[in-house]
């Protein structure tokens, strides 16, 4: 077994978690007393203590002191194995299904090595299961490990006493502008339900994230007599009116600005209002949104949305007004938005006459996401599926149907310090004449998010859209990456004329506000030959999943 050098000592004979624990222990004691000044017996004792949590109770170590380091050769010896496990549950919860399920999942089994961490984790698992079922006074009447050093075996005996079960009592809110009826819809438990500290924490988080309060304290009253636990909730209101301002820059938009006006709540029913103005060289919008909490305000809401927009793309130009009614359902890794939209738009595509359309169309948007961090996730995915359509039989001037999928995924190869980022967009529009579809509903490509060597939304319109891209991100310094990317795709109607490709290199910095990417993209043909098109500087800020 190869030796492992750390600091002023070299360790051989063990590996993995055992080696890491020995290293950690020696580094810890070296902070108080240099290893060179400790005797061989002191060092051997520390090594023995580091090995014992992993079941090595008869280890030996030899110490060789060199000029520049101390060599420690470890012979771990036979490992302590579990010979017998006896775990019994007594008390009111001795027949509780969830506690018994936790018991059945414990990893303490005869024949397995005795590892102290597993033993302590098993006890904590039972404690957690009991506490989450309202057994707040649970304890171990007996917790013994009997070691037979002659046979290198251990017998475990646990007697777990759940004690009495406690239940949620009444919930009392401090005076608040928000109606009690809405506040009670945030309660994740019912009166008489078994008490759970996890539910108390979830209740506190739900109220804190509602936007109505600057401070929330959910306090169970544990000193009451009996087994019912009342819950008192103190609420401190947040300022009702807020303003927001933002500035940014990207290759697609140039300098962009954002102004926001927010009222939370509008009334005691908890309604919210947002007005936002967005400005850039190719997109300008004025938006208003009125939000009504659903029956479960944590997951459901209704939106009334209106906007005025001006779009100025290479593919076309438009002015539009839109009104929408939407129902939004949001879970941890899933979102569904169903909407009915009314759109009036005056637009023209490149080298086409101006059009004027009034369209009433329903839309469904489904999203699945999994990411560890909202700003930058080393591994994860985000998939969005959209479907919409309109008919002249339903107050629309255009017949069309459209479906699209936008999928992004990232995976990090930790040993290589490399992140692979994949992105694909696929879509189809069923319509007689693609020019009859307003610019704001058209499928377009080009820009920092897809075909990077091409101007933002310059490719299209068309009835079929297809894009795929890969980016390799190699971390060279902490939070600094060298990137290389390749993109391919096109929008066509419906015959394919010239598939678009690009490749490039760049840098990415994962900043406290999210990743910032700077790169250079070059358009190429199918033979990887450079097209007669200048390289394009690409600057992009914000999450990529």
Automatic annotation (TrEMBL):
GO terms for cellular component: cell outer membrane. The keyword Membrane applies. Keywords: Cell outer membrane, Membrane, Signal, Transmembrane, Transmembrane beta strand. Belongs to the TamA family. PANTHER family: SORTING AND ASSEMBLY MACHINERY SAMM50 PROTEIN FAMILY MEMBER (PTHR12815), TRANSLOCATION AND ASSEMBLY MODULE SUBUNIT TAMA (PTHR12815:SF47). Residues 88-153, 168-236 form the POTRA domain. It is found in: Cell outer membrane. Interacts with TamB to form the translocation and assembly module (TAM). Residues 299-529 form the Bacterial surface antigen (D15) domain. The keyword Transmembrane applies. This is Translocation and assembly module subunit TamA. Residues 10-76 form the TamA POTRA domain. It comes from the Bacteria.
């Amino acid at each position: 077994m190869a030796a492992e050098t750390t600091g002023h000592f070299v360790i051989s004979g063990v590996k993995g978690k055992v080696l890491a624990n020995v290293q950690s222990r020696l580094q810890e004691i070296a902070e108080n007393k240099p290893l060179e000044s400790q005797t061989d017996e002191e060092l051997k004792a520390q090594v023995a203590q580091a090995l014992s949590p992993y079941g090595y109770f008869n280890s030996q170590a030899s110490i060789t002191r060199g000029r520049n380091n101390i060599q420690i050769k470890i012979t771990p010896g036979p490992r302590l194995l579990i010979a017998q496990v006896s775990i019994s549950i007594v008390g009111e919860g001795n027949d509780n299904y969830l506690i018994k399920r936790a018991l059945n999942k414990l990893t303490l089994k005869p024949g397995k090595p005795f590892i102290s961490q597993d033993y302590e984790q098993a006890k904590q698992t039972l404690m957690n299961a009991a506490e989450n079922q309202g057994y707040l006074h649970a304890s171990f009447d007996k917790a013994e490990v009997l070691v037979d050093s002659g046979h290198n075996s251990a017998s475990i005996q646990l007697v777990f006493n759940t004690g009495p079960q406690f239940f949620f009592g009444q919930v009392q809110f401090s005076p608040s502008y928000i109606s009690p009826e809405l506040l009670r819809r945030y309660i994740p438990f019912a009166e008489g339900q078994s008490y759970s500290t996890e539910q108390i924490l979830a209740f506190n988080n739900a109220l804190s994230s509602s936007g109505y309060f600057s401070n929330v304290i959910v306090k169970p009253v544990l000193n009451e007599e009996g087994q019912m636990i009342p819950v008192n909730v103190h609420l401190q209101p947040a300022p009702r009116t807020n303003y927001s301002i933002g500035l940014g820059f990207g290759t697609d938009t140039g300098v962009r600005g954002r102004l926001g006006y927010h009222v939370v709540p509008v009334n005691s029913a908890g309604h919210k209002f947002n007005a936002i103005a967005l400005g850039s060289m190719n997109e300008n919008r004025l938006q208003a949104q009125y939000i009504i909490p659903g029956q479960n305000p944590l997951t459901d809401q209704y939106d009334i949305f209106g906007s005025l927009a001006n779009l100025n793309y290479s593919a076309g130009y438009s002015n539009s007004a839109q009104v929408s009614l939407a129902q939004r359902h949001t879970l941890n890794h899933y979102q569904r938005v169903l909407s009915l939209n009314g759109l009036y738009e005056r637009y023209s595509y490149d080298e086409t006459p101006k059009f004027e359309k009034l369209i009433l169309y329903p839309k469904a948007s489904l999203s699945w996401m999994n990411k560890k961090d909202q700003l930058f996730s080393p591994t994860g995915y985000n998939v969005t599926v959209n479907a919409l359509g309109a008919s002249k039989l339903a107050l629309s001037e255009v017949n069309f149907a459209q479906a699209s999928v936008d999928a992004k995924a990232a995976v990090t190869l930790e040993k290589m310090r490399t992140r692979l980022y994949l992105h694909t967009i696929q879509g189809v529009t069923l319509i007689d004449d693609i020019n009859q579809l307003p610019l704001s509903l058209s499928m377009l490509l080009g820009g920092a998010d897809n075909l990077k060597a091409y101007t933002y939304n310059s490719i299209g319109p068309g009835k079929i859209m297809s894009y795929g891209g890969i980016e390799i991100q190699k971390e060279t310094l902490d939070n600094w990456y060298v990137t290389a990317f390749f993109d391919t795709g096109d929008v066509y109607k419906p015959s394919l004329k010239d598939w678009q490709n690009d490749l490039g290199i760049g840098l990415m910095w994962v900043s406290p506000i999210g990743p910032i990417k700077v790169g250079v993209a070059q358009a190429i043909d199918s033979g990887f030959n450079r097209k007669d098109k200048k390289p394009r500087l690409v600057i992009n800020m914000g999450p990529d999943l």
